[in-house]
Each structure stands twice: as C-alpha cells, then as structure tokens.
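Structure catalogue
Derive tokens from sequence
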Amino acid sequence: MAKANPFRFSTKYQDDESDLVYYGNRYYKPSTGTWLSRDPLEEIAFKRNSLRHQLTMQMRIQAKKANVFEGQDYLQYVFVGNDPLDNIDLLGLACQSACGQAVDQALRLTQTDVVNRFNSLSFWGQCKACAPIYLPVGDWSMAWDMYDMTWNWKHKMQCGTVTTCDQTVTVGGNCYNAWDVNYLLYGWAANLCDMGENDMLAHVEGYKILKQDWKRLYGAVWFAELGWHGRFSPLPPQWLMGYPSCLPCSRAYPTQLGSVWP
C-alpha cells in the first residue's frame, strides 16, 4: 500500500521505475543520496533569469553578505549536507556553505575569564569598567567586543577550507551572525555591573535604533538577554534570526575568545 502513494519522502513525487524524487528544480536519487545535477543557484544563467525576479535588492544584498551563492563544486550535489534528519530542501535549491566555527565551549571559557578578570579589579577599577556599559560614551560600541569572533572573524572563524558563510558562527548546532552572538558579553557585563535586565534591554534597543541597525536588533536583544541570565540556550527558532542555508560547522574554536572587557 505504501508504494501506491507516489508522494513520500519530503512530500515529493517519487518515480519507482527511475528511482528519482522530483523537487521542482532538480532530481534527487535516494539510492545514492545525491542530486543528479548541480545546484541551479550556482549557475549564472539561473541567477540572472530566475532569482532576479524573485529577490528584492535588499534580499540580494543580504544573500551576498551571507555568501548564500557560494559553495564548492562537490557540495552542489550533496543532499542537505548528508543530514536529512535535521535539514530540509523544499525546492532543490539549498546551498551548502558552512557556518563559522562552533563557539559553544569558547563562549563558556570566555565568560569564566571575563568574570574572573572583573572580580580581580579594585572598586574603582570596576566602576571604570562599568562606565561604558551604562553610558554611551566614546568608543561605547567597541568597549565590550569579543574581537576574535567579530573584528578578526576572517582570520579566526572560518570553517576549515570549505566556503564559509561570512560573519557567522555555530552556536547550539545552529548558525548565527557573530555580531549578534557578541551581545552575550554585553549581557555578562550588565549583570556584573548590577544593571537591571529591563535597563540593559533598553540600552541595547536604544543603541540599535540610534544606529538604525534594524536587521541586527532582534539578535542583539536576544543574546544580550541570554548573557544577562548567564545562559547560552535555549536559542530562538533558527528562522527568526539565523542562517538555515549555512550548515553547522563541526570544527570548534579551541580556546577562549579574546575580549576587550573588562
């Protein structure tokens, strides 16, 4: 009876005679676990003639920044990164670029280092460290960055030799913008400086609004709140602020992340 229904895996049409599953833009062969053709997103003609009419200018800019259209040749034939249990490909168009390195352990080591360094300061040293956390004084935006993950991303965070989605890191098995994750440190600092949670969120929102950085507002608020509570998870659903087209990187950043605070 199961074979009587041609719509099976991924709700796509499967032809038993050819052993092919049709995804609308290309065919997948379950017996080999591969596509029969290259990802159309990698074809220049497809980009020019198809995506031009589907993507707004802003979406194209965002896709370019995230390296959505980049990928090694062999990755264009791999079906959802060889992980069909955790990844999906509705149209047969998903790229397979990797996210930046996994930083879960690195973040925990960095948090411990930040807390220890802050507690070792004198009273006045702590006051000086907390000043840029409370007040948008000079260089406020650079007073608490984890610079290995942000400013030094290209030299530190790429996932080996594969094409890596730009300015991203892997956290909790999902891919997120490194500058969003960076707000964990602001959350740690706000808590150490006895700033209330609502005040901290108001500072983050005010700063993003002042910069008109609407794209990074949600991620900054969420990671700052996680940091204030001393947590790294649970993270919000990936589609809200992550990069589902970027496969999680299996390579982990080996040490704590360099930070300028306290």
Notes: The first helix runs from residue 44 to 54. Residues 2-82 form one domain. The two ends are 66 Å apart (CA to CA).
